[in-house]
């Protein structure tokens, strides 16, 4: 059964007509995702069954992105709507001004985000939860070791491969799943767009199972969600996600080549720089929001 959904006045990516009611749409999405998760876990286990190497972890990551994120998103969109590309917001490009300002916002936010990363990494749980904290830090160390192994050596070829896998593919696949599919389906009911964005951001951060990076990833997820909402195009948050991941990859790669230098702080140890970072980022976000408001002629 087709359920026509009237586009909201402040939406730059109007919701197309959708099949099924709201509860059934979420049910089918969860069902498809659960099936994909089982297939992805089995495939990844088979890939690394001979031992974890740089090559096997890279291939396993490719399998995860395709099987767990891309295919379920496409299947869900096809099942939910006769216009799947419109549902995913991949049928339109972001405007040039909003793209440039979004990039400026991300660059300006780096010192403030680095400060947030450092704060999150240094969180200590109460002594009564010491066992839980030990397990979480052990999990983080294992994840970091896997990432280091996946990133491989210090050659330019290693850097390019890692940017393609961790930057471009992961950035696109995760945005397709979380913002293009999950956020859009949540907002296809009576859920306020702000709530849909933050619910998706929480799930996005929780999925990575890294508590000591939860809050920076939560803020990034919300930023990507608003970029989709303001631009009406999934390509903008996918681009910024890829840029963010690529910066991380380059930083780690550069650190291997030059272990005595630290390009990871970006001024996060300077109060003045952090304040400027917050103010400039807030200004850029304000402009982004008002570009969307002026395009739609509504008050948000």
Describe this entry's structure for a reader.
This protein is an all-alpha fold and 300 residues long. It is built from 10 helices and 2 strands. It has a two-stranded antiparallel ribbon with strand order 1-2. Helix 1 runs antiparallel to helix 2. The longest helix has 31 residues, at 156-186. The two termini are 32 Å apart.
Chart the SSEs and their pairings.
Layout: E1 2-3, E2 18-19, H1 22-47, H2 54-80, H3 84-88, H4 96-121, H5 130-151, H6 156-186, H7 193-207, H8 214-231, H9 235-257, H10 271-296
Antiparallel strand pairs: 1-2
Helix pairs in contact: 1-2, 2-5, 2-6, 4-8, 4-10, 6-7, 6-9, 7-8, 8-9
Total number of helical segments? 10
DSSP helix fraction: over 70%
Radius of gyration: 20 Å
Q: What about the largest sheet?
A: 2 strands, antiparallel
Number of DSSP strand runs: 2
What's the mean pLDDT score?
A: 88
Helix and strand succession?
A: EEHHHHHHHHHH
**C-alpha termini separation:** 32 Å
Return residue spans where pLDDT drops below 50 for at least 5 consecutive residues: 6-10
Tell me the fraction of residues in β-strands, as a range: under 5%
Structural class of the helix and strand makeup? mainly alpha
Strand arrangement within the widest β-sheet reads: 1-2
The outline comes out as globular
Brief characterization of the structure:
By secondary structure, the protein is mostly helical.
């Amino acid at each position: 059964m087709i359920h026509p959904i009237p586009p909201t006045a402040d939406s730059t990516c109007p919701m197309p007509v959708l099949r099924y009611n709201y509860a059934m749409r979420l049910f089918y999405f969860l069902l498809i995702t659960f099936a994909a998760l089982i297939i992805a876990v089995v495939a990844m286990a088979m890939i690394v069954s001979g031992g974890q190497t740089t090559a096997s972890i890279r291939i396993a990551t490719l399998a995860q992105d395709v099987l767990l994120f891309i295919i379920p998103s496409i299947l869900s969109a096809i099942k939910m709507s006769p216009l799947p590309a419109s549902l995913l917001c991949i049928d339109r490009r972001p405007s040039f001004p909003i793209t440039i300002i979004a990039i400026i916002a991300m660059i300006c936010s780096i010192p403030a985000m680095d400060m947030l990363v450092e704060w999150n990494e240094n969180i200590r749980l109460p002594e009564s939860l010491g066992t839980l904290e030990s397990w979480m830090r052990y999990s983080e160390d294992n994840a970091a070791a896997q990432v280091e192994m996946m990133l491989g050596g210090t050659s330019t070829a290693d850097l390019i491969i890692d940017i393609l896998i961790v930057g471009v593919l992961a950035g696109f696949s995760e945005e397709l799943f979380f913002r293009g599919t999950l956020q859009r389906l949540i907002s296809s009911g009576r859920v306020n767009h702000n709530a849909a964005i933050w619910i998706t951001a929480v799930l996005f951060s929780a999925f990575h199972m890294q508590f000591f990076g939860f809050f920076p990833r939560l803020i990034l997820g919300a930023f990507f969600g608003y970029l989709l909402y303001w631009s009406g195009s999934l390509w903008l948050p996918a681009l910024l996600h890829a840029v963010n991941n690529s910066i991380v990859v380059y930083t780690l790669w550069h650190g291997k080549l030059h272990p005595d230098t630290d390009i990871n702080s970006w001024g996060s140890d300077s109060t003045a720089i952090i304040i400027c970072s917050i103010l400039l980022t807030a200004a850029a976000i304000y402009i982004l929001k008002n570009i969307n408001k002026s395009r739609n002629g509504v008050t948000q």
